[in-house]
Amino acid sequence: MENVLRSTRITLEMIKWEHSIFALPFALMGAILAANGWPAGRQLLWIVVCMVSARSAAMAFNRWLDREIDAHNPRTSMRALPAGELSATFVLCFTVIACGVFIIGAAMLNHLTLLLSPVALIVVLGYSFMKRVTRWSHMVLGLALGIAPAAAWIAVRGKLETRAVLLTVIVLLWVGGFDVLYACQDFQHDREVGLHSVPQAFGIKGAFAIARAMHAGMALLLLVMLRSFHLGKVSFIGVLLVIALLAYEHSIVSPRDLRRMNAAFFTLNGVISVLLLFFVSADVLHH
Fold first, then answer.
1. Separation CA 38–CA 36 (nearest Å)
2. Who contacts 118 (Cβ-Cβ below 8 Å, separation ≥6)?
3. Percent of the chain with pLDDT over 90
4. C-alpha angle with apex 182: 176 to 185, nearest 5 degrees?
5. Contact 164, 229 (CB under 8 A)
6. Helix or strand or coil: residue 110?
7. SS3 for 143?
8. Is residue 261 a contact partner of residue 181, using CB atoms and an 8 Å limit?
9. Closest by alpha carbon to 143, among 114, 175, 108, 113?
10. Sequence-distant contacts of 91-98: CB under 8 A, at least 24 apart
11. How many whole angstroms separate alpha carbon 32 and alpha carbon 231?
12. pLDDT digits (tens, 9 = 90+) for 101-112
């Protein structure tokens, strides 16, 4: 039992479960917009369970599938699996259990969420294969996180609507853009081992240009979101702050200097998602 608890703790550290903060605020925002106020407490509970379990399954599966690749990459060779701190069997079992929790959570929401739960798992688990076959794997990662607000919308309303898809595209561009930047750190390694990525295909300068274009698209769609959901001045202030943080994120890293990539990737993106949730939910709940 002690070994299982230790392995579980190391697994949670490995998948950085606390980084669920990236997508969870967008899921909660989708739920609040769908309900035009606070959703039922039961709905919120199971949305959170589904979000955390789906992301945990996706990250654990990614580490399991990439364990040999990580072992040969100096940046990732000390991760738990290549370093021998965890067994591949344990991590795969953890993935299966997390998938099971996700399906149970989906079943507790409504019939449509249950029916769509295998589709969601295919998307979030399928991302791990994408860098082996396409340079646009970053977009699949964006979709994996981007379905969160649409899924939350379905959880609350029992159906999918066009406005919810807009939220998905916003998250897709946001996540895809910062994942393109993050992948610049592995430019040489990906090229040597034959993995596909935007930096590997277009070079680091080209990758930065593509990431900027994706984040500019996100900024534009955030403004469209204000109109689509009839949001007010409070949300507008939040959107302006998010756009300013995106600009700052791009100002602290460059093709010649990637040293502050972790600050841009983890700290700023966590702030962006929480900030947008705060201002939009304050706007909706105020009315």
1. 7
2. 103
3. 52
4. 145
5. no
6. coil
7. helix
8. yes
9. 175
10. 91/11, 91/14, 91/60, 91/63, 91/64, 92/61, 92/64, 94/8, 94/11, 94/56, 94/60, 95/57, 95/60, 95/61, 95/64, 98/53, 98/54, 98/56, 98/57, 98/60
11. 12
12. 999 999 999 999
The residue assigned the tokens 């364990």 is 67
For the chain, the domains span 2-286
pLDDT of residue 122: 95
Q: What pLDDT score does 286 carry?
A: 79
82-to-17, 73, 187, 196 alpha-carbon distances in Å = 19, 10, 20, 21
* 257 CB neighbour count, 10 Å cutoff: 9
Confidence of residue 127 (pLDDT cuts 50, 70, 90): confident
Beta-bridge partner residues of 257:
254
Supply the pLDDT for residue 91.
87
Note the CATH number of domain 2-286: 1.10.357.140
CA distance 60 to 160: 29
- Band of pLDDT at residue 187, cut at 50, 70 and 90: confident
Burial tier of 54 (Cβ tally within 10 Å: 0-12, 13-18, 19+): buried
Residue 254, φ and ψ in degrees, nearest 5: -150, 165
